[in-house]
Amino acid sequence: MTPDSIMKRKQPRFLRQPGPFNPVRIKTESSSYGRHIWLFLKPGETLFDAIVNPLTEFNVRAASMTILGGNFENLDYCVAPPDPEGRTVIAYSKPRHAGHSYMIFGNATLGTSIENTPLVHCHAAIRTKNGDVMGGHIVTEQAIVGSKPISVLVTSLEGFELRQAYDEETGISLLQPVEIDHHD
Amino acid sequence: MTDFKLVESGKMGRVAYARIAPNEDMVLGIEKLCLAQGFSNAFVRGALGSLVDAGLEASDGSVIEIKGPAVEIVSLAGEVRSDENGTPCASLSGVVADPEGKVYGGPFLLGLNPICVTFEVTLEEWLPDTNETPS
Fold this sequence. Notes:
Number of helices of chain B: 1
Number of domains of chain B: 1
Number of strands of chain A: 11
CATH architecture of chain A: 2-Layer Sandwich
Helix content of chain B: under 10%
Structural class of chain A: mainly beta
Strand order of the largest sheet of chain B: 1-8-2-5-6-7
Radius of gyration of chain A: 18 Å
Radius of gyration of chain B: 16 Å
Strand content of chain A: over 45%
Oligomer: heterodimer
């Protein structure tokens, strides 16, 4: 089957979300520049702490990150099958234990949670201790950086924030870009 | 002799972040984001999220269909260049994981990658030098 033929006969599958349709389909903010930081994840720390602590010192609260390859003492990850209770279209599975693993490549976003604390959302491809190559949502608080620092390219997002907010359409709290309120 | 540039010098410009909503096509969404932000050329600097199903192009031109939901986007790199009419055209390549965590990779096909819950993407604008590059 060629891409042309399948496009002609196959409609991509859409899912009906549980909440009201939001007519804003692309929510976006921009800034005139981005700061770039070469971050080294500290051995022995959780992935969450190894990202959040140094970036907080640099006053970075929102960022997009590329995690280059490296070993982790431990990695747990989740996949996202359909929600068995049907409240949302999908729900994260219980964490799967990958153990001592190699992260092949990862992307992460730093933002602010509903509780006003740092939030790191990370997806990655990993090679588990069994040699299986898998992918999914990384549990950053359970991921322990291995004995060597791991490089991360950080692009800071300046002039706006990424805030976790309840999304009525999907019924899930998601990161959304918002203008910084200068009236605090 | 080549009929295309081997080198294009320039610099990075603005940075845009977007959350794209469910059932929008990921590739088209990135192209529309460039329209929304006024970017002619851009690099994808970070992206993660989920797809209902994924469609990647195989080496023989056929479609690799990955059934979800959800198919997690675990890595994505790409570029957007505008054609002679100013239409942004995205070329995106990456790795996805199916609901069991099994991974697949390749170029994402236009129209076959509907977003499941959310798609977060950061674009960095590319500003080519206006002077001609040495041939």
